[in-house]
Write a structure and sequence with these properties.
InterPro entries: Fe-transptr_FeoA-like, FeoA_core_dom, Transcriptional_repressor_C. The structure is a single chain. The protein is of the alpha+beta class and 83 residues long. It has two helices and six strands, in the order ββαβββαβ. The longest helix is centred in the middle third of the chain and has 10 residues, at 31-40. It is globular and about 35 Å long.
């Protein structure tokens, strides 16, 4: 009767290079990180692709490449997009 579905989500930091997610929430008590995310335009619903983890954490939000630190990546939670 019902179609099975799964919702897989995690911190952006855990995505592998090439994986993509949609931001579900930004969790941080640090006001500097919160302001940084706002200034970068990262908010609920933003599509993010991880390009690399090392030596720097590089993402694409929309089509804009950005370098962020690990603490900022930990604050961004995404719903992983399969495929």
């Amino acid at each position: 009767m019902f179609t099975r579905f799964s919702v897989m989500g995690c911190s952006l930091e855990l995505l592998k290079p090439g994986e993509q997610g949609i931001v579900t929430v930004c969790k941080t008590q640090d006001e500097l990180i919160r302001k940084k995310l706002i200034s970068m335009g990262i908010k609920t619903g933003t599509s993010i692709i991880v390009d690399q983890h090392f030596p720097a954490f590089v993402i694409k939000a929309g089509n804009i490449p950005m370098t962020i630190d690990r603490e900022t990546a930990r604050a961004i939670y995404v719903r992983v997009i399969e495929g």
